[in-house]
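Title: Comparing notes on inverse folding

I've been comparing how different people in this forum approach sequence design from structure. To keep things fair, I'm posting one structure and asking everyone to reply with a full sequence. Here's the target:
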């Protein structure tokens, strides 16, 4: 046991706004990876020492090169306040270094120990209805707690000082899945931190009153001290308050990350840092485009939804989003599963070959590391039925054999590392627009932010066309087709950026319920879709949301659902119109010249066949072609090095052999590519 070295001074809840991502540290990490990194979460504290020895043998057999260690180990590293036991972790780190395995070492702060909860119960999260969430689980703290920050930065410093020069240390894994389970916090310290954040954001209380429109319902504030988080109330809450609280909640979590990062930068300025995001179609509470400015390496966790028959398409969307968050640069898949998870209502195992396809799909879409939760399947605890690289049955199992096959496959793909994904299509995605679009008191509860994005992405996926999922302020100059779906809230700068893409020559499509409000959720007056009205050459007088399950007919033979509206042409043409009263003859799809490009507007949610026909038309107009010609059911993505070397990933999700029009070396099996991919199989072609 060592003496307590924790500082007694509290950590300021509002860390400086300087954003700390270091591209040089990221480059160093990837340069030292030696190919596509492979591994997972390693929790040796759950096992006796003799199992540790077996682990090293099996890791060598599987080809493991990178492990996350110590994520939930605080209670063992500091069993009592100020007393530390690092003997077991020292041994593990030394053994991994000896085996040539690199470590993403965690700050151990993802679950506070029982003694800390007992001493400082004020660290516990409080929900909107005032419920205090207890311990006995994980993530049972609020990021704005000054006490928790003091202790969390303390244990982070102790770990950093101890392992700062360890040869196994390659990356800091800061906390774990920030915002998982609880992402919004309503306690007293959270309320004060929210008020402080509002004062910095708005400057004066009158500016806040203007932004929130507090003249409505007598909500005017005389000072910031009067403001509370949007706790449970008798009726609907102020939408400006809700939107700002969502922004604050995302900021509070990354601000907590920055407090730990500041310690790591001080002690180990040479070691890159990250935290594992959860970028997927299921996670909306954190603005990961904002977070990316503090992460040296973008890392993501992704899990399939077993009940979704097209979960491989959702995987592709999440991977494309992660790549967008990473600015197109390589990223790290920090967690996914070898087979079943434990937290869905029905947890089916992955089918033979599915794990390989999942893993290579992430690599195809930009991941230069493939990791799992976890290395060895737990025999106790909440996640004991979550699959792992070494399952309960040990090495003589299908799962472990497939893990070894994957490790061998990734070694064969070493030359792919560092190449970038090719795409000429951009799908605009904005967390703030997601938050705003799904606030209450809107025209239709059936308008969900992701629906149209996922519809278009899925149609492109089935055509072998890769899309980059990008923030609306991102550089769109390299894209020939830009899709803007349900971008309900957009600021003037982002709207101008999108318009500029069309005027430069891109084909642009904007869907319904886009451009309606500004960054304060104030309606843009003069006719919808306000921010894009002139660009699109249309003006919408009134929304006509459809009844639950209702449809509307179009004169091209298609049907729409969810939405329709009173569109008036103001320079655009109408390739398709509604046919039913009261919108008979009203445009449903419009096209307008915009500088050197074109701007389309879609005023309903088309049926699947109609959407596919529209996508084909947009691809033809923009000149965007699939990565290759292939049979249906084959996922196609191309990665390319700056020197021109290119790699076509062809992943066959079907149950019959599929043809792919490509030639070159096939890296997984060796030799020349034969032009076919086996049922459920994969090919990676180093193209001629």
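Reply #1:
Here's my take.
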């Amino acid at each position: 046991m060592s003496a307590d070295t924790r500082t007694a001074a509290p950590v300021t809840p509002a860390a400086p706004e300087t954003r700390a991502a270091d591209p040089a540290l990221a480059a160093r990490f990837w340069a030292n990876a030696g190919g596509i990194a492979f591994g997972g979460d390693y929790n040796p504290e759950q096992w006796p020492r003799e199992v540790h020895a077996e682990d090293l043998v099996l890791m060598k057999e599987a080809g493991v090169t990178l492990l996350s260690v110590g994520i939930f180990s605080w209670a063992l590293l500091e069993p009592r306040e100020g007393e530390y036991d690092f003997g077991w972790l020292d041994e593990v780190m030394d053994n991994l270094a000896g085996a040539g395995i690199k470590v993403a070492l965690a700050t151990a702060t993802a679950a506070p120990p029982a003694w800390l909860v007992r001493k400082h119960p004020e660290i516990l999260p409080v929900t909107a209805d005032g419920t205090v969430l207890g311990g006995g689980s994980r993530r049972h703290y609020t990021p704005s707690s000054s006490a928790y920050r003091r202790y969390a930065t303390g244990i982070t410093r102790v770990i950093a000082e101890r392992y700062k020069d360890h040869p196994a240390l390659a990356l800091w894994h800061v906390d774990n899945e920030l915002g998982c389970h609880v992402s919004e916090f309503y306690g007293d310290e959270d309320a004060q931190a929210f008020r402080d954040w509002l004062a910095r954001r708005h400057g004066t209380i009158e500016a806040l009153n203007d932004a929130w429109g507090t003249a409505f319902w007598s909500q005017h504030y005389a000072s910031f001290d009067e403001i509370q988080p949007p706790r449970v109330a008798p009726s609907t809450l102020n939408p400006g308050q809700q939107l700002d609280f969502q922004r604050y909640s995302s900021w509070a979590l990354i601000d907590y990350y920055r407090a730990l990062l500041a310690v790591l930068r001080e002690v180990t300025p040479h070691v890159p840092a990250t935290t594992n995001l959860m970028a997927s179609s299921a996670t909306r509470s954190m603005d990961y485009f904002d977070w990316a400015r503090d992460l040296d390496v973008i890392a993501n966790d992704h899990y399939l939804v077993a009940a979704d028959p097209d979960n491989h398409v959702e995987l592709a969307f999440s991977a494309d989003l992660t790549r967008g968050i990473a600015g197109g640069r390589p990223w790290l898949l920090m967690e996914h599963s070898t087979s079943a998870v434990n937290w869905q209502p029905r947890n089916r195992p992955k089918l033979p070959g599915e794990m390989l396809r999942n893993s290579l799909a992430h690599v195809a879409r930009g991941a230069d590391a493939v990791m799992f939760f976890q290395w060895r399947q737990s025999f106790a605890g909440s996640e004991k039925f979550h699959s792992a690289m070494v399952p309960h049955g040990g090495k003589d199992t299908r799962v472990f054999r497939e893990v070894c096959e994957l490790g061998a496959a990734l070694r064969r793909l070493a030359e792919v590392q560092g190449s970038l994904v090719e795409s000429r299509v951009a799908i605009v995605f904005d967390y703030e627009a997601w938050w705003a679009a799904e606030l209450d008191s809107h025209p239709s509860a059936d308008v969900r932010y992701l629906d149209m994005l996922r519809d278009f992405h899925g149609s492109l996926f089935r055509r072998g066309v890769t899309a980059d999922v990008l923030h609306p302020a991102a550089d769109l100059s390299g894209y020939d087709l830009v899709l803007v779906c349900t971008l309900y809230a957009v600021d003037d700068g982002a709207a101008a950026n999108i318009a500029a893409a069309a005027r430069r020559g891109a084909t642009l499509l904007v869907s319904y319920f886009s451009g309606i409000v500004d960054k304060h959720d104030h309606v843009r007056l003069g006719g919808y879709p306000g921010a894009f009205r002139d660009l699109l050459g249309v003006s919408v007088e009134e929304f006509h949301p459809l009844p639950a399950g209702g449809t509307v007919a179009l004169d091209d033979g298609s049907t729409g659902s969810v939405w329709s509206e009173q569109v008036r042409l103001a320079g655009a043409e109408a390739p398709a119109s509604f046919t039913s009263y009261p919108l008979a003859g009203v445009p449903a799809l419009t096209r307008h010249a915009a500088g050197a490009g074109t701007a389309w507007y879609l005023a309903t949610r088309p049926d699947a066949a109609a959407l596919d026909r529209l996508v084909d038309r947009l691809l033809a107009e923009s000149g965007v072609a699939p990565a290759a010609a292939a049979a249906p059911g084959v996922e196609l993505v191309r990665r390319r090095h700056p020197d021109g070397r290119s790699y076509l990933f062809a992943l066959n999700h079907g149950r019959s052999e599929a043809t792919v029009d490509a030639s070159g070396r096939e890296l997984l099996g060796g030799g020349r590519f034969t032009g076919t991919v086996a049922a459920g199989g994969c090919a990676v072609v180093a193209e001629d």
